[in-house]
Amino acid sequence: MKYGAAARDTLDFELAYRPPYDWPGLGAFLGARAIAGVETVGEGVYRRTARIALDNREHLGWLEVRPSPKKPALRVSVSASLAKVLPPVLSRIKALTDLACHPAEVGQALGALAKTRPGLRVPGAFDGFEVAVRAILGQLISVPAARTLAGRFAAAFGDPVETPFEGLTTVFPDAARVADTSPARVAKLGMPAARARSVIALARAVADGSLELMPNADIEATLERLRALPGVGEWTAQYIAMRALAWPDAFPHTDLGVMKALGESDPKRVLAAGEAWRPWRAYAVMHLWHSLAKE
Length: 295
Fold this sequence. Notes:
By secondary structure, the chain is α+β, with helices and mostly antiparallel strands. The protein is 43% helix and 15% strand.
């Protein structure tokens, strides 16, 4: 479907940003991690399904995001089924695409590291729980393997939704549904039992309200709650903070890619090196990861 072909069924907006904006970089990151049935990335367009709960009612639908060809803005189309929950939908899109970023401030702090891609953003989260589940599923396995596992997870526990796009068929399950699932059923998707228990523990914490995974959450308190979950170490907690909490200073210093990009094998030295990039270490991580893609 071409943009605007179903205008009568969509609500269209433009969300401004401070240039420069590395849309290809954001798309490449999200595309490599797109969950089958839930997200698609192609031809410069990001699309996904959505579930928003409001007043004890769930609203299901879809949205698409692409850059405006004429101005520093993103063009957003939201399905009419999400009309009653537009404020949270647009807020989540802004978080996902990191529209609050001040590239000049980030570039000044990162110096030479940011010069090759000055508009690089930190991909956020449309759904914090979804990103946190992905982080746990992706522990100790490759990005493609984690993507496959996440697709199985969505297909097993998510809900069907109608969209105009062949690749969008499923909304990611909410925390309450996953919380009521047995670890054994999750493990059958192809992961260790311990990791399945971590997913269930995460879901129960989110479902009962003791853990909030959104940009306005208290960073230190949330990190403490995440670390207290079984199977959630520092890498997972920092990655979730980087994306779901939109914390610009998150720094998964034990990440193998970060260490490789820095030519370091000691996480303590990586942590020390990161001090120079405060309070924008999450952006430094993105630049370090992208530097590896050139190899």
